[in-house]
Amino acid sequence: MLLVINKETGACTPIQLNRDTMTKIQILGVRGDVAGTFTGQLALAHTYGSGERDSCLNTAEAVSNLLYGVGIDHYISITMDGVAILNDLVGGVEVEVMDDFSSIDSTLVQGETVTLMGNHALTYVRTRGGLEDSSNLHRMERQRQYLIALQKKLTEKADSDAWFATNAILQVSDYLTSDCTAEKLSKIADLLSKSDVSEIRTIDGEAKVGQEYMEFYPDEDALQALVMNVFYEKVKK
Question: What is the separation, in whole angstroms, between the first and last Cα of the chain?
């Protein structure tokens, strides 16, 4: 997920990136130096390195390559273990269950409205196998549903408690990797709580079965249009 924040207008545009997106990725050597490049799924960028700072920087570089060189100012990574903690800090997240999880978790009944707590949240946003539609594209749809609801709860908490963002960051700090200090993250969170957050944008394209795994190829016209629309100001004639 890439967040594009316009500090002048207060607008925030989230862009959800398909993990299977094919793009240029740096190969990092054992000392962290760049040993070459290859074209592969975006998610592979994070597998090079320790899983911490170097992996995040490599992922940011891959995203920049995908978006025609647009710079990525900061990165924040949270491990799977941190999802349940963040979810519960806002008192749980309410969603209408989109899929039949009966073979995985009988408490997640398709069509019912539930408040996700603890690891149920991780199950809901992470699961693919065992569902009728196990594609990543469908999982991304479920993740967007969850993130919209989570963002609403985060904003409500921040509005009612001036220290919520700072305390939340401290609670999940053991699961976070970022180039920002806790103070910087708190300021970004405060900025987001006051921003006009638009609908989550996605990139049109085609998912294909590769030699081993799924591969997603962005539609170049759609990708260029998104980059121009989100990152560059329109010049008035």
Answer: 33
